[in-house]
Amino acid sequence: MADYREIYRRTDDGGVQLGASADRWYLYEDHVHLAPHHTEGQLVRFDAELLPFVDNLNRGALAVVDMQNDFCAPGGWTDRSGLDYEACRAAIPGVQRAIDAARRHGMFVIWIYWHNRPDLRNLGAPTLHSFKHRLDQVGIGEELDNGAVLTAGSWGAEMVDELTGYMADDDIHVEKVRMSGFYGTHLDQVLRTQGIQTLYVCGVNADQCVSTTLEDAYFRDYNPVLIADATATSSPAYCKDAVLFNTKQCWGFVTTTEAFANPQPYPTKGRT
């Protein structure tokens, strides 16, 4: 009987075990198996970088990060700060495709977004400074034409019009007050209680809220997967390039909406 507590154990079919017991992965020459201990349900193989990976669809969820008016709509904070809000809008079609695919897979869709207290008592100076670098720049909680920036109940905190029709009653909403979707939120509890281990992430900004959420997922031993063409940033292009590089080299995997929507069945016979 195999000792699944042995890290780097050789599997019977030529792989190497990473981790131990129920947390183990199997590394092969041409793919990584994230769930060799979960053979029930829909076991599939996704194309990705650095390697394709295999997982059960019922262990995954799609996280949509910060697709809010203040980042992605004309007149929002990004636009009024002189940043490239149109670049953020480039993520919208990909996010729509990713949501459609997640629903076909039977996955939860998790909306993660800024939702600050009107009195700003939840924010410290470093976070406030991230959104107000100049005296004339409007910061979190200050008023723009359509209301207070990224504040609970404001237009700027709402999802962009193109995505409101993609929201369903049983979707999960996670309100945050820092860049990471994990910090000070119930995201970790939601994932654990629902048996979710693999988190497919999309949204904006790739190099800020998306990347910190990916990194915090990795630090908590989740399996982070970045959906590249459903992710954007108002920063220069090299910032997203760096996130893509670091994600596939360190945090997890990088895939596309096409690959996410069309995984291939994976045989289980003979794999131990």
TrEMBL record:
Top-level taxon of origin: Bacteria
InterPro entries, A to Z: Isochorismatase-like_dom, Isochorismatase-like_hydrls, Isochorismatase-like_sf
Lineage: Bacteria, Bacillati, Actinomycetota, Actinomycetes, Micromonosporales
UniProt-recorded Gene Ontology molecular function terms: hydrolase activity
Protein name: Isochorismatase family protein
Coiled coil regions in record: none
Signal peptide (from-to): none
Keywords: Hydrolase
